[in-house]
Amino acid sequence: MADSSLPKTLNFNVGVLGHVDSGKTSLARALSSTASTAAFDKNPQSKERGITLDLGFSAFTVPLPEQLKESCGEKQYDSLQFTLVDCPGHASLIRTIIGEGISQERMSARERERKRGKGKAIAQFPTSLIFTLSFCAQIIDLMMLVVDVVKGMQTQTAECLLIGQLTCSRMIVILNKTDLLPTDKRQAAIDKMTKRMHKTLENTRFKDCPIIAVAAKPGGPEAPETDEPHGITELIDLLKAQAFLPRRDPSGSLLMAVDHCFSIRGQGTVITGTVLQGSISVNDTVEIPALKVTRKVKSVQMFRKPVPSAMQGDRVGVCVTQFDPKLLERGVVCTPGSLQILYAAIISIQKIEYYRGALASRAKFHITVGHETVMARISFFNRVLPGKENGDCSPISQEQNANSFSFDWEFHHLDEYLTGQAEGGRGEPQQWALLEFERPVTCPPLCLVIGSRLDSDIHGNACRLAFHGKLLEGIEDKNYTETALPRLKISKDKQKEGAVERVTDDYTVIGRNLFKKETNLQLFVGLKVTLSTGETGSIEGGFGQSGKIKIRIPEGLKEETKQLLSSSSKKKGKGGAKNESSKSEETKPDSQPVTIHLNFKRYIYDPHKKMVQS
């Protein structure tokens, strides 16, 4: 058992995000006293290129601030540990997350070497943005947005701000590299950039967030280590003031994001990562879904200190029984059987306002879900409310129905995402989407989903994050098109128009031009039609072999209709069959004035392709 007299440390996770070369890693290094096995650009490619290619983790500890002593209550913590998550900001890393459609953790070592040898633009850990999103969504307590004070907001700065808006509630803006400003104009430039940042943030959830100026590495990366950073003490004081007691839930299934893996001879394999949900203890059995194996937990450490267990939000090293660490560069560890393997999914969806492109059904997007990014085809739909089935979907707002879904509901297919306001002017109309993944993905229920166009020009200034939502229904059946999709009642409105060719009797007409010759007319027998003169009838069946139909008018034709059709027939008869002009006359508006209108809907996933009328 753990000794209760040992000092207890409260862990607080801080995400460090920003544009490439804004000084994130230098800032983390200046703040940190204890580095993990994946910190400060230890990746060889990071050192070579001078940018962060991987998430880096480091930490520093301070005495517990007074405001936390009160809020901790019975939980007697002695100190506060800030765990810093240094996230990559280089655009090409985000773009190459897919790695030609193969996730990095599923590649063999030989495949990775082959790709590097050919000079492919594939980073060693191309899933960095996925982990950034996963961390922010589940355990990042506060975000530090690092901005180059000379350059201001840049493309990836804006995308990091967007990620923060989707996943985090608190933020500090760091104006870095103040040492590059002329001494006599430094404060004026800092004040000007501070004002600009407040203006940028005024319509976001981070309005009035604190902004602080620092020089994390005076003189740049090549400067001697003897040059002391500026403003770091003040930043630590600000972080202490902004810290709060994070909500941590040890219950539920374990989900741990793994970012590093190595073996220790005679002990086992060490997995380092962050507990995203649940808890982990010595002697637990955990599953590694990517390898389809389970392993027993032999020991747990937090920044080199042995602990009996860890819970949501904790940064840990877990020693398990031996396996080849090269097989798990990145991935997840979980409670056995707790993760779904999905072939398709239903999600709630909301367009990101800064995305300029259209969101069209049947288009493909890069979908970040759980800890993977995969291509998927998307189809949009909204709900048909009871009593409003006649094409009026009366969309409700996101706020009214944010994350609910039922296979019992009636939905209406959308050719593209609807923008504008719902009834009452309360937000955008609630919409859902079906995602059909190009390969199966492993993810927990109700996780964050983000759709992007990562193949966009990385040098452009357009936002590549297109939409976000929550996974509401996962479809685990590989044959989902035959089993699950028919349960999804999404209809598409259809309209057909033809013309009355002739009258058979007072209750029957022959129609043409509604269907093609090869159409199976039996599917339409019994459907109601309306004549342009007001009569309603139903399709009795086909007439001949050219796609014509016989229509029964139960109430009989009006006298005016019969006269109109009789007059039309006489016009057609003039000149006889040899008169070529009569053929063209049939297509004129006044030669066939009585039109036939057929309105119906079809459930797009109905295997029987039945037509339905309300």
TrEMBL record:
Residues 9-247 form the Tr-type G domain. Residues 580-589 have a biased composition (Basic and acidic residues). Residues 561-595 are annotated as: Disordered. GO terms for molecular function: translation elongation factor activity. Transmembrane segments: none annotated. Keywords: Elongation factor, Protein biosynthesis. The keyword Calcium does not apply. Gene3D superfamilies: P-loop containing nucleotide triphosphate hydrolases (3.40.50.300), Translation factors (2.40.30.10). InterPro entries: eEFSec_C, eEFSec_III, EF-Tu_GTPase, EFTu-like_2, P-loop_NTPase, T_Tr_GTP-bd_dom, Transl_B-barrel_sf. This is Selenocysteine-specific elongation factor. It comes from Labeo rohita (Indian major carp).
